[in-house]
Amino acid sequence: MSPLDSDNCKDSEGKELVAYIDIFALSGDPDFLGRCSACFASELVAQGIPVGEEPGTWTNFNRWALAAQPGFGAAIESARLADPPVLNPAANPAVISDAEITAAVQAIRG
Question: Which of these, 57, 43, 56, 20, lies nearest to 101 by C-alpha position?
């Protein structure tokens, strides 16, 4: 049995735990980070704020907080374990939607 099998991702009460490998992978995924950067830039433009701050810099600084958002790791895990697996799940809005990324960016920005 693999350490990533779902039976090994439960606490002592049987509650599902997030596989940290999925959050780790997401935190460095260029497609996910690019989507987050695009969202950040769009948020600034929508608020009439010049995009003087490099969106990629903001995203890189906040990449762990973005990747660790509730449900993101589980969505990547589910896509990875699907039959057939979802290819490049971090780029797929059916796995993590743009609305979910927007909510995450807004929550982190405060």
Answer: 43
Going by C-alpha positions, the residue among 103, 31, 32, 109 that lies closest to residue 67 is 32
Continuous H helices in 1-110: 20-27, 30-46, 55-61, 63-67, 72-81, 98-109
Which tens digits make up the pLDDT trace of 50-71?
A: 887 689 999 999 999 999 999 9
pTM of the model: 0.82
- Give the DSSP letter string of 41-64: HHHHHHTT--TTS-HHHHHHHTHH
- Residues facing 10 on adjacent strands: 16
DSSP label of 10? B
Residue 49 burial (CB < 10 Å; 0-12/13-18/19+)? exposed
Name the phi and psi angles at 4, rounded to 5: -95, 0
Residue 4 has pLDDT above 50, yes or no: no
